[in-house]
Design goal:
Blueprint: E1 2-10, E2 20-26, H1 33-43, E3 48-55, E4 58-64, E5 69-70, H2 74-87, E6 93-98, E7 101-107, E8 111-115, E9 120-123, H3 126-136, E10 150-153, E11 157-162, H4 175-185, E12 193-198, E13 201-207, E14 215-216, H5 220-232, E15 240-246, E16 254-260, E17 267-274
Parallel strand pairs: 2-3, 4-6, 11-12, 13-15
Antiparallel strand pairs: 1-2, 1-17, 3-4, 4-5, 6-7, 7-8, 8-17, 9-10, 10-11, 12-13, 13-14, 15-16, 16-17
Helix pairs in contact: 3-4
Length: 275
């Protein structure tokens, strides 16, 4: 067994604080679920990936937060792809079997592109939206007037809130209230609060108390869900390449690139560096 520590979705400019930290545990066959949870808690990152049955072009992967197992994690997948390319001479494309489905990952020793599982979009309104806005300490007047809130699937389930200019800078969510909603409704992923800067550039903040942290610096599954949401709502011209800036407010600026085809799987790309 080998425990590695990576920063995924690092920025183009060199910055030792950029990117979202993730654990990558290779050859985890001998670990029980309790062992994996303990190691994830000891590492203290929002997620740690545990890889088994590693072959040149395939592996099984499970993801644990310090609190529980989740179906998928984008930044830990990018880190895993880079780790396999660097340390195991993996094939150019590795097929990762996750609890959310099969995820092909094209990786080098510096960056990786994952093909997200089938994404979906559902309406989010009524009392549930009011409860979420209250937990985020936001109001309906803070919402983007065109792009409505939604539940998006990008490997995990995320409640997505699109907001007006200036709202992200003052976001100060109630962590306990957000956690209560995440636990009650099975929102394993983050709560992306997103502002559109330009037609293809977005800024995002992602409260994530369920992952044991206040705010996630970079979230690949939420970025995939965002791409699916924009395509489904006709908010972008497809095919499109989007950039998502995230993590600056958490002290870890991150850059996520999202490729949205006319149809089919959304692809998410990021650089990763070993810590």
């Amino acid at each position: 067994m080998e425990i590695l520590r990576y920063r995924a979705f690092t920025t183009a400019e060199p910055n030792p604080q950029s990117g979202n930290p993730a654990g990558v545990v290779l050859d985890a066959e001998e670990l029980s679920d309790r062992d994996m949870l303990r190691i994830a808690a000891e590492l203290g990152f929002s997620e740690t990936a545990f890889l088994t049955a590693i072959e040149p072009d395939a592996a099984r992967v499970r993801y644990f937060t310090p609190r529980a197992e989740i179906a998928f994690c984008g930044h830990a997948t990018v880190a895993s792809g880079v780790a396999l390319a660097r340390w195991r001479n993996a094939a150019p494309v590795v097929h990762l079997t996750t609890n959310a489905g099969l995820v092909p990952v094209r990786a080098t020793a510096e960056r990786a592109t994952l093909e997200a599982v089938e994404t979906g979009v559902e309406d989010l309104d009524g009392r549930l939206l009011d409860d979420l806005l209250s937990a985020l300490r936001l109001h309906r007047g803070d919402l983007d007037p065109v792009m409505r809130p939604a539940l998006v699937h990008g490997g995990n389930l995320h409640p997505l809130v699109m907001v007006r200019e200036g709202v992200l800078e003052r976001l100060d969510h109630d962590g306990d209230a957000v956690l209560t909603l995440q636990d009650a409704h099975g929102w394993d992923g983050t709560v992306p609060v997103v502002h559109r800067i330009s037609p293809t550039r977005f800024a995002s903040r992602n409260p994530f108390p369920r992952g044991g942290i206040r705010e996630d610096p970079a979230t690949g599954s939420a970025a995939a869900g965002l791409g699916a949401y924009l395509r489904a709502g006709g908010h972008i011209d497809v095919p499109a390449v989007l950039t998502v800036d995230q993590g600056a407010e958490a002290g870890r600026p991150s850059l996520i690139v999202v490729e949205v085809p006319r149809e089919g799987r959304v692809r998410v790309t990021g650089a990763a560096e070993e810590m």
